[in-house]
Amino acid sequence: MKRAVVLLSGGIDSTTTLAIAIAEGYEAYALSFDYGQRHQIETEAASRLAKLLGTKEHRIAKIDMRIFGGSALTDNIDVPKKRSDVEIGKGIPVTYVPARNTIFLAYALAWAEVIPARDIFLGVNAIDYSGYPDCRPEFIKAFETLANVGTKVGVDLSRTHSCYDPSPEGLACGKCDSCLLRLKGFREAGTTDPIAYVTK
User: Fold this and answer.
1) For the purposes of burial, counting CB atoms within 10 Å of the CB of 146, is it exposed (0-12), middle (13-18) or buried (19 or more)?
2) What is the CATH topology of the domain spanning 3-149?
């Protein structure tokens, strides 16, 4: 059975994501965090839901993000109340915990290597990513690239092929749409394409 680490906070998004992973045939390893948030209600909910939905295992990692503060969830800052949809949709809210998803995903990636699992599930939604930088699709894609190049089970991209018109020796042309898009992707990821080209 294929395995996956699923980040589980106990909220709607992560619980739905866990249910989807299980429905898609994954053996789910749920990972929650006691990160110094103001209450433990969400970790208690996560434990109940992990059992209810039938995870293979559920772990709660204890880290203390209160040492940095900077968020209404980990610092002595009031949680905003009664904001309008317009207010909610503007800027980065004070409930944003700096780098939280980066840290959570790093833990998930570490556990995935140990299990081993090739998939990590994270439930974020369109409302969150308008205000939380680490919920944006660009962030998720960048972390996926990091996971692929930064682990022992990462994809060896030098063995991939994209070119529509390779040379007789199998070198990528560097000019077709597929090559141009591939090269653009590597540039935007801040790394070099490891395959050989006739010309770039």
Assistant:
1) middle
2) Rossmann fold (3.40.50)
Pairwise CA distance, residues 190 & 145, whole Å: 10
Q: How many other CB atoms are found less than 10 A from the CB of residue 65?
A: 20
Read off the pLDDT of residues 103-141 as tens digits, 9 standing for 90 and up.
999 999 999 999 999 999 999 876 655 578 888 888 888
Report the first-to-last Cα separation within the chain, whole angstroms: 42
Residues of the chain with CATH 3.40.50.620: 3-149
Q: What is the pTM of this model?
A: 0.73
Count Cβ atoms below 10 Å from residue 194 Cβ, excluding itself. Answer: 12
- Cα angle: 133, vertex 153, 106; to 5 degrees: 30
Segment 24-43, tens digit of pLDDT: 999 999 999 999 998 889 89
Centre a 10 Å sphere on the Cβ of residue 7 and count the other Cβ atoms it contains. Answer: 23
